[in-house]
């Protein structure tokens, strides 16, 4: 057997014998062409001696189109730019340079990738200029171009976000300062309370009322009012400190200042959730001024009611007391007229006629005053009143009195049923119909009654074809004793429309007129569908 050789075995892996001028040069050229950066080499005479594949792709120029040409001939816009200056310094003095994206005014005019084309007209580049020493060719200049468009885009976005964040912080600070100023200068006391019973005053007014120098009982009252205060040991506040029932939704409490002055406060409570806990915002509003106004209004209303009652009693008493002497005067004047008519001279007959007419007008005026005084004092409770039946009764009354020719009162369609005092509504519409007939031609006078509904009310119209009313008198005709004509022209006391107005007011309605001289008049009685509380209380 042969002894194994003691010489070391050669590696089985094949090796390449690369010389500097042969395969190695091809390998280096391939590596440069496949690099993900642009590689450009310039000879000492400033002409391009290397142009890799990356540059061909981004510039759109093949290597055979640019080799042997100066860079400023390939890209004329770089003639006086930062790149040309850096190349000059590199070849002349051997100085390296780096051109950042911020100096892209002098960068190479390379096209950006498609995804950046909408935002960038040219590629954002970082260019490194570096000298290369060779044995045969002297000093070369290399340009390494990196595409930093994505980084620039990110930088722009970060700068924009930073600016927006700074603006948001500024606005937030401004809003916070404004909120603090509003809280400090508001007239209401504002506090915040958590569900553990801790109460913190937020402004000076709250500190004044609930702070160390404020009302010690007020904090306890606030805790008592909070919805989640069941688990906190709280003593109920004194009854005289709660001014309203807790079930009303509007809570009023009484606070005591350090000087001993009582201050009525309106309490409003709202809640919000934060830090997985409930918190409450309590607003305390000083309602002293409002309470004083309410008391003043109540006192004024009581005085008005007392005054109205006294006036009604006076009107009723005066009218009632005037009845007896007037009745006696009227009876004797009528007796004189019957007994001595034609037996005296014409002047005496005229005087007797004036006396009888005067007593009769006085009698009618007193009767109307009594009716007016009874509207508010002797009204009946409100019940449903079918207006069709009511106008049937009105037409029958006029026919019985012989004061309306057949067909002069026209009722169109169906009239609604309203809530009210039937006897007063009868008087109201009877007066309006009577007015329409009185101020119309006795033979051709016509009164039309019709209605129209609104969402909240019934509107009943009484239209005539009479002499009409000048618009300047549309308000004054509803005042007592306001007449637009003399007693000799049209009969009446001037109280009829005042009675109509008072009846309409008692029913919570509105009485108005639309008219022009010579064009007739249309009176509108608007009665609410829902009975007002005021009207109900007065009617009982």
Tell me what you see in this structure.
GO terms for molecular function: phosphorelay sensor kinase activity. Its EC number is 2.7.13.3. α9 packs antiparallel against α10. This protein has 4 domains: 124 residues, PAS domain (Beta-Lactamase, 2-Layer Sandwich); 98 residues, Beta-Lactamase, CATH 3.30.450; 83 residues, Helix Hairpins; 160 residues, Histidine kinase-like ATPase, C-terminal domain (Heat Shock Protein 90). With 540 residues, the protein is an alpha+beta fold. Helix content is 42%, strand content 20%. It is elongated and about 165 Å long. The termini are far apart. Strands 2-1-5-4-3 form a 5-stranded antiparallel sheet.
Q: What is the distance, rounded to the nearest whole angstrom, between the alpha carbons of the first and last residues?
A: 144 Å
- Per CATH, which architecture of the largest domain? 2-Layer Sandwich
Overall mean pLDDT stands at 78
Largest sheet: 5 strands, antiparallel
- Helical residue percent? 40-55%
Strand content: 15-25%
State the name of the first-level CATH class of the largest domain: Alpha Beta
Give the strand tally.
17
* Unreliable stretches: 1-18, 533-540
CATH superfamily of the largest domain: Histidine kinase-like ATPase, C-terminal domain
Sheet/helix structural class: alpha+beta
- The Rg value, from CA coordinates, equals 53 Å
Any idea of the CATH topology of the largest domain? Heat Shock Protein 90
Overall 3D geometry?
elongated
How many structural domains can be distinguished in the coordinates?
4
Q: Number of helix segments?
A: 14
Spatial order of strands in the largest sheet: 2-1-5-4-3
């Amino acid at each position: 057997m042969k002894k194994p050789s003691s010489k070391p075995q050669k590696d089985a892996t094949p090796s390449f014998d690369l010389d500097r001028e042969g395969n190695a040069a091809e390998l280096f050229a391939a590596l440069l062409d496949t690099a993900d950066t642009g590689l450009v080499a310039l000879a000492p005479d400033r002409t391009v001696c290397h142009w890799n594949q990356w540059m061909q792709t981004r510039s759109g120029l093949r290597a055979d189109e640019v080799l042997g040409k100066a860079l400023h001939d390939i890209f004329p816009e770089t003639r006086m730019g930062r790149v040309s200056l850096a190349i000059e310094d590199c070849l002349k003095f051997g100085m390296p340079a780096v051109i950042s994206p911020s100096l892209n005014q002098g960068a190479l005019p390379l096209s950006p990738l498609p995804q950046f084309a909408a935002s960038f007209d040219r590629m954002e580049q970082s260019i490194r200029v570096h000298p290369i020493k060779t044995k045969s060719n002297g000093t070369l200049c290399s340009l390494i171009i990196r595409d930093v468009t994505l980084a620039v885009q990110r930088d722009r976005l970060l700068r924009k976000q930073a600016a927006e964040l700074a603006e948001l912080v500024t606005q937030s600070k401004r809003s916070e300062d404004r909120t603090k100023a509003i809280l400090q200068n508001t007239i209401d006391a504002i506090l915040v309370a958590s569900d553990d019973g801790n109460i913190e005053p937020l402004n000076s007014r709250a500190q004044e009322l609930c702070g160390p120098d404020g009302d010690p009982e007020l904090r306890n009252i606030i805790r008592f009012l909070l919805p989640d205060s069941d688990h906190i040991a709280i003593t109920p506040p004194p009854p005289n400190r709660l001014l309203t029932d807790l079930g009303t939704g509007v809570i009023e409490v009484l606070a005591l200042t350090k000087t001993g002055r009582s201050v009525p406060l309106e309490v409003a409570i709202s809640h919000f959730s934060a830090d997985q806990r409930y918190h409450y915002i309590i607003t305390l509003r000083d309602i002293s001024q409002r309470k004083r106004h309410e008391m003043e209004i109540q006192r004024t209303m009581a005085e008005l009611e007392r005054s109205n009652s006294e006036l009604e009693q006076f009107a009723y008493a005066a009218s009632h007391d005037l009845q007896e002497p007037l009745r006696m005067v009227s009876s004797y004047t009528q007796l004189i007229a019957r007994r001595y008519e034609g037996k005296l001279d014409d002047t005496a007959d005229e005087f007797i006629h004036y006396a009888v007419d005067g007593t009769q007008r006085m009698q009618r005026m007193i009767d109307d005053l009594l009716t007016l005084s009874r509207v508010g004092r002797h009204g009946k409770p409100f019940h449903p009143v079918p207006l069709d039946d009511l106008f049937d009764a009105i037409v029958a009354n006029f026919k019985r009195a012989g004061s309306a020719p057949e067909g002069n009162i026209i009722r169109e369609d169906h009239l609604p049923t309203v809530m009210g005092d039937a006897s007063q509504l009868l008087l109201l519409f009877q007066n309006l119909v009577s007015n329409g007939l009185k101020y119309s031609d006795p033979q051709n006078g016509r009164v039309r009654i019709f209605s129209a509904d609104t969402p909240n009310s019934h509107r009943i119209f009484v239209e005539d074809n009479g002499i009409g009313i000048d618009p300047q008198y549309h308000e004054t005709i509803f005042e007592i004793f306001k007449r637009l004509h003399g007693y000799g022209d049209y009969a009446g006391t001037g109280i009829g429309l005042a009675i109509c107005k008072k009846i309409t007011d008692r029913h919570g309605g509105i009485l108005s007129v639309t008219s022009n001289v010579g064009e007739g008049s249309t009176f509108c009685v608007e009665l609410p569908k829902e009975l007002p509380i005021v009207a109900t209380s007065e009617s009982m």
